[in-house]
Design goal:
The protein has 321 residues and is an alpha/beta fold. It is 38% helix and 12% strand. It has 11 helices and 10 strands. The strands form 2 sheets. The chain has an 8-stranded parallel β-sheet. Strands 1-2 form a two-stranded antiparallel ribbon. α5 runs parallel beside α6. The protein starts with 8 loop residues before the first strand and ends in a 5-residue tail after the last helix.
Amino acid sequence: MELQTGIQRVMLGPEGTEIPALGVGTWAWGDSLFWSYGKDYTEADLWATFEAAIAAGITFFDTAEIYGWGESERLLGRFQQATDQPIAIATKYFPLPWRFNTQAVTDTLTASLERLQCGTIDLYQVHWPFDFLMGQRTLMQALGQEVKRGRIRAVGVSNYSAQQMRAAYDYLADLGVPLAVNQVQYSLLHRKIETNHVLATAQDLGVLILAYCPLAQGLLTGKYRFKNSEQPKGARQYSSRFSQKGLAKIELVLATLGVIAANHNKTLAQVALNWLVCHGNVVPIPGAKTADQARQNAGALGWAMTPEEQAQLSRVTQAWL
């Protein structure tokens, strides 16, 4: 389905919220450990990012209770209250060991709703497939009950294997509740879900893939190049992927992105994101800390590269399968 803006739309489950086929990941919003919130960017910068995303038609925001220890949710809550534009919010429940009964799910969801300043969450996801004392069946039953209570519109999981996703799907189906999404890492430089059956199983079950780190933490933007003096800030500077040796490995990928970008008058990042969108059941959720990044990401929608270009990118990233 297309809006007047021309951007693609998808559904969060058969009866869920309609969202654009690209969202905004907000891991960096309020996080000063891995990222550098409060030093390199502020709440004012994130408010400008939020406004720019909405103006570009990107009205879907993904957060989690542990992002910034709740600060990401609080920021989104304040921003949502300050705009008259409808937005869709996804957040996540972290299955900590001491959360061993359904009341823990209820209490955790209540806390997220309070931070987000809303009565219903469009998508509530389990952050990791940990079992501990609760078990997956009990957890899914608790989430199903919250759907029936009206506090969750759609249920999702995150970082689930194909087998774990299918089990969650079956547990929820027993309650008449669909599994809407599985949020996993997916990009041209991380294609494991194509070989570990996660992507195929999601397609078989009708489950949407939310792709986090779709730009490989900035590697696919072209900002960091071999023999380029610019280095990432925060924890990324210690990753071997951002070393000269790591950057040399992706030169062919970036060069290929550059050729396709020139063909469509797009940026490298927009091409990398569009490759994901072209799958049909994949919604990338790139992070954005500035208004310009939000506008740039939005440019991944409203067009499509050719099947030949898709195949070309697939070929030069075979090493990341």
